[in-house]
Amino acid sequence: MARRPEPALRTRALQCLARREYSRAELRAKLLPHVRDGDDVEAVLDDLAKRNWQSDERAAEQVVNQRRNRFGTQRITHELRQKGVAENLIAEALPQLKATELEAAREVWQKKFSSLPQNPNEKARQIRFLQSRGFSLEVALKTIKPPQISGAEHD
């Protein structure tokens, strides 16, 4: 008995989605190498989205949640664009990312360095490291800035 090719694509797509969330563009790219005559990838993707089994919103949320403690806004935004997430969904995630960016940068910096730079070369190295993780220069500078001690704290 001959099987229709489309269910094989649907099965493959569901296997992918069972492991993690995929954006529509990512899932399309995963399925395209397996398309046979008569397969309609777009119909499969439309059906999965209609049933809410595939969601770009959930895929974006998953990336943000997994990456925000290790990477800066720039790096996460770039990754979302690479995964084919729509700009409006990226824009929705930005306020949440920016609100926690300094805290995330401090955690990343603390794990790597734990002490403030003692000379300009060390300062530059620490800033480059934070920027390579996707943190802005402004956030990197705030991260390695020594804490200000106020007179009220010495009581």
What would you note in describing this structure?
Helices cover 66% and strands 0% of the residues. With 155 residues, it is mainly alpha-helical. It has a domain of 54 residues: Arc Repressor Mutant, subunit A, CATH 1.10.10. α1 packs across α3. The longest helix has 26 residues. It is elongated. The termini are far apart.
Q: What is the fold's blueprint, element by element?
A:
Layout: H1 5-19, H2 24-31, H3 41-50, H4 56-67, H5 73-82, H6 87-112, H7 120-132, H8 137-144
Helix pairs in contact: 1-3, 2-3, 4-6, 5-6, 6-8, 7-8
CATH class annotation of the domain at 1-54: Mainly Alpha
The CATH architecture of the domain at 1-54 can be named as Orthogonal Bundle
- What structural class is derived from the secondary structure elements? mainly alpha
What pattern of helices and strands is seen along the backbone?
Answer: HHHHHHHH
* CATH topology category name of the domain at 1-54: Arc Repressor Mutant, subunit A
Low-confidence regions: 1-5
Rounded Rg:
22 Å
What separation lies between the terminal Cα atoms? 85 Å
Annotation, overall tally of beta strands? 0
Largest sheet: none
Helix content: 55-70%
- Counted by DSSP, the helix tally is 8
Average pLDDT works out at 89
Sheet-strand content, in percent, reads: under 5%
CATH superfamily of the domain at 1-54: Winged helix-like DNA-binding domain superfamily/Winged helix DNA-binding domain
